[in-house]
Amino acid sequence: MTDTPFEKTKIAEGGAWGAVWSMSLCVAMLIASEFMPVSLLTPMAEGLGATTGQTGQAISISGLFAVATSLAITTVAGRINRKTVLVVLTALMLISLVVVALAPSFAVLMAGRALLGVCVGGFWSLATSILMRLVPERDVPRALGLMYGGQAIAAAFAAPLGSYLGDIVGWRGVFWALTPVVALNLVWHLVALPSLPVTTRASFATFGTLLRRRHFRRGLIAITFTWGSAFTMFTYLRPFLEQITGVGVDLLSVLLLVLGGAGFIGSSLSGRMVGGRIERMLCLPALVMGGCTAALLVAGGSVIAAGLLLAIWGAMNTAMSVIWMSWMSRNVDDLPEAAGGLMVAVIQASILLGGVIGGFLLDLWSVTATFAGSVLLAVIALAITGTGRNLLKPKTES
């Protein structure tokens, strides 16, 4: 086995669960900060003298910087104690929120959003490897479930809460409202996170080492089609529900809330359901979510059917991250930071790719073509994943 780039000394026999909860809150704040502009685009554009389309790029730029940071963080951070890195990233998130809240122009807004992208890419790249050090191996899936629970909560409530508060305190007030929570989270990190020293500096050559491993390379390809399928559908869910299901704004909000709430349940259950045979779980995201998308093409005209299918889809959407990160923690456990960086970069790129493919199909034909394209990508993901055995680390590497 290759030398691990950090000490694997157990923090405590029972694990440092306070630190896990602190990371879960950090995830919630990252997701809320990243996607809050979705519900505030119009007032933000008016306040900054920009077009709505330009302001929408505030979301895209954070994603682009997240991809770049996810690939560079392990090298740039070098041998810096990982507790220090997480504290710095959380402090940068706080600064980003202040910059956005005070932004006098569109250019300053974009700078603040780029800074947030650095936080997103850096945190997600290191998160799984840090959890592997905070809790016993058997509890890693449960810890991942708790962390992604923060993502599910933020995804469910950030947009509607932002829209509601925006009408009361204005869009700047919404970003100011997040700052005390992030400041509290920063203090919690300082108190709860143990020292996480790094003994070996990673380099870009480490990515080459990982990509030469057939099981990991095949896993990345499966991840590309799995996330690509999910976001080809999810990015264009609203036009589908409006055109095919025929819902108005109020019912649309209810359906999206159902999807987000189910995501919280999915993250909680998946953390407990992932057992020793992780390969059996790998096909479930593409199978279940692709199946729900296919069923929506048939029964999406019914509000009840759409709601039920979206609940199942939403639960598996968050479970998907727990399942695949658990796979990484067990099959690339000697280089988890570099593996996490590659996975985050591939996932972010797949999300962008899914949006491009879905938009092309929508403009060329219809939203049903977009959903059909999502199903096709899910089928390809299933073909690559197979039984999951070909994605397991060979025993010779153990």
Classify the fold: give the CATH topology of the largest domain: Growth Hormone, Chain: A
Integer tally of domains: 2
| Low-pLDDT ranges | 1-10
- Number of helical regions: 14
User: What percentage of amino acids are in beta strands?
Assistant: under 5%
- What is the average per-residue confidence, as pLDDT, rounded to a whole number? 83
User: What is the name of the CATH superfamily of the largest domain?
Assistant: MFS general substrate transporter like domains
At the first level of CATH, what is the class of the largest domain? Mainly Alpha
Rg value: 20 Å
Structure summary, number of beta strands? 0
In percent, how helical is the residue content? over 70%
Structural class: mainly alpha
Q: Shape from CA axes?
A: globular
Q: Please report the distance between the alpha carbons of the first and last residues.
A: 6 Å
- Spell the H/E element sequence: HHHHHHHHHHHHHH
Task: Return the CATH architecture of the largest domain.
Answer: Up-down Bundle
Biggest sheet statistics: none
